[in-house]
Amino acid sequence: MRRVTLTQFLIEQQRAGRTTPELRLLIEVVARAVKAISVNVSKGALAGVLGEAGTDNVQGEAQKKLDVIANEILLQANEWGGHLAAMASEEVEEVHQIPFDYPKGGFLLLFDPLDGSSNIDVNISVGTIFSVLRNPEGDGEPTEQNFLQPGRDQVAAGYALYGPSTQLILTVGDGVHGFTLDREMGSFIYTHPFMTVPNETQEFAINASNARYWEPPVQRYIAELQAGKSGPRGKDFNMRWVASMVADVHRILTRGGIFMYPLDEKCRDKGGKLRLMYEANPMAMIIEQAGGAATTGRERIMDLQPTKLHQRVPVVLGSAAEVERVTKYHLES
Ligand code: AHM
Ligand code: MG
User: Fold this and answer.
1) Residue 61 CA: which ligand is closest?
2) Interface ipTM
3) Record: fold of 203-332
4) Does residue 264 have its Cβ closer than 6 Å to ligand 1?
């Protein structure tokens, strides 16, 4: 079998005019950081990287040691390459500026360094999610305002899944492509070309312990799925909830389904649970590029005009027919 590495894939994309040398470099540097995070995640207790860091992040959540390590790896890896104007991280309150002694480039990089961090200490899959925007023209250091662009303006998005194998899933707006880390060689190999979300599905992912807080359209939709063969859907549905968005979305990308973190009474004040810029937008781009759909239950995620860097939103994504049904139930109510 001809083994195509991530580097070769990106160079071929560049030759075909689908990416630029600057974006190629950016993705390669993110992939290098992902390899370093993967090494740390896989060492676990042997490297003393489990447990709490003893600090809170901007969201007021206790940071795990690996949250802090992954964040540092991504910031440091991406500072020097000359392809970025600035970065923003779920773990950092303010925009991260490029140190003055490095050249600057035209892109903005946003990331959730370690998604699903409640799973770290129990040795269950976690991930990294990233999104790339263009820095709007203008002088001076990028501000929060520069980042507040709708998801449809993303030039690339991706995630890494640190599971039994480490995978990198990527889109530059021309389909979704998956790579698997060859740990001995230290390179990502192109293993999953043009991934698509099957339209027909019998699987759903939601934190069912929040059922009593859900809004009526979500209650209705989930009740219909749970009614199985004898209910209005006429078939049985299965439920899975890893509680790592990356792992739950990856399952949907592989075998279809719907993932929901809807608005509920518990997260209403915050606007939702998941973050628009670091989680919802990049995952929405990947799912749409794979033929699926992504809404808040009411509107397309990638059409939202962000108002804050750390904004939270409800998320409904996956197989298009299911997402459309959930959205219809919301709009009817
Ligand atoms: P994190 O970025 O702090 O890890 O939080 C996001 C995670 C998602 O990966 C996952 O879908 C959700 O939070 C799990 O929430 P819950 O604790 O309700 O299961
Ligand atoms: Mg997260």
Assistant:
1) 1
2) 0.95
3) D-Maltodextrin-Binding Protein; domain 2 (3.40.190)
4) no
